[in-house]
Fold this sequence. Notes:
- The chain is α+β, with helices and mostly antiparallel strands.
- Among the domains are: 11-71; 203-344, Heat Shock Protein 90 (2-Layer Sandwich), CATH 3.30.565.
- 67% of the residues lie in helices and 10% in strands.
- The chain is built from eleven helices and five strands, in the order ααααααααβαββααββ.
- The protein has helices at 2-8, 12-38, 43-71, 73-86, 102-166, 171-199, 202-207, 209-223, 241-262, 292-297, 303-314; strands at 227-233, 266-273, 278-285, 318-322, 329-336.
- Strands 1-2-3-5-4 form a five-stranded mixed β-sheet, covered by helices on one side.
- Helix 5 runs antiparallel to helix 6.
- The radius of gyration is 38 Å and the shape is elongated.
Amino acid sequence: MxxxxxxxxxxxxxxxxxxxxxxxxxxxxxxxQMGVHSVSSNGTYWGIMFSITLVGIxxxxxxxxxxxxxxxxxxxxxxQAARNVRAGDLSARVDKLRLSDTYLDNVIEAFNAMLxxxxxxxxxxxxxxRQVLHVQEEERKRVARELHDETAQxxxxxxxxxxxxxxxxxxxxxxxxxxxxxxxxxxxxxxxxHLALELRSAxxxxxxxxxxxxxxxxxxxxxxxxxxQLECADISRRLPPQVxxxxxxxxxxxxxxxxxxxxxxxxxxxxxxxxxxxxDLSIEDxxxxxxxxxxxxxxxxxxxxxxxxxxxxxxxxxxQIVSAPGxxxxxxARVPIAWESLRP
Length: 344
């Protein structure tokens, strides 16, 4: 059994070569025996027949070796390419050969296509990693700027008011300073609360997506001149946390882009449950539109769009942006929900 196992582990080339050589040798020996019976028993004839047999076996072995070597060359190339890929060289490819058959051509095409896909996915992963790091740094800069421009200045003003309070000459002046301190403290607390809610909405965590979007739209309408309208239908249950967060971030990014770039007067946010159990989200504005492909092709120009697309992809959904210069912009996302796995 051990010998049989070792034989089965022999490369295909050697197995076929051995099998064909045995067949050719058996045929030559058989022909030799037939020739012996058809000629005289003279020793000279025996020697000639024996020499012919040896030559036939050698020629058969050499012919088998050359034919098999040429026929199995594509497999050898595939094997070498696989070794290169295992070593980390994703650029390895196998060229088609004139001696290759249709079956091996299909295998080579599938192998090369697989490597193309792997290499493309690796490039996309590297691009995504760079973009994620860039977005993180931009968000840190924004938070730092908010803290410096708003919170730090408010705290500085508090210190000034406290110093003025300590130098108040009369009770009326002290009471006036205290009132100013209270108002300034209240504004500072509101700014810090707003910054914290922008980073992570407690309403979203506690009450769900619909309540979170209602809160965000109210905050949005209070901050920007553009008007946002929210329509939610047929959603009475909590969604998976990752789905809620992904859809919330898409709305947040799309509304921010509309306020900054669209020159729109109105934006509609629509969230509804489809008959097939999917959640459908659309954000549409009446602004000036933009060239989607051009923005995505610019370096760091489509980070927000790319981020929305990746968020929806991570929860198994579909994402699309429809826009053109002079037309409305529509951000559309659909996400499947496994309702049977959710609690009522």
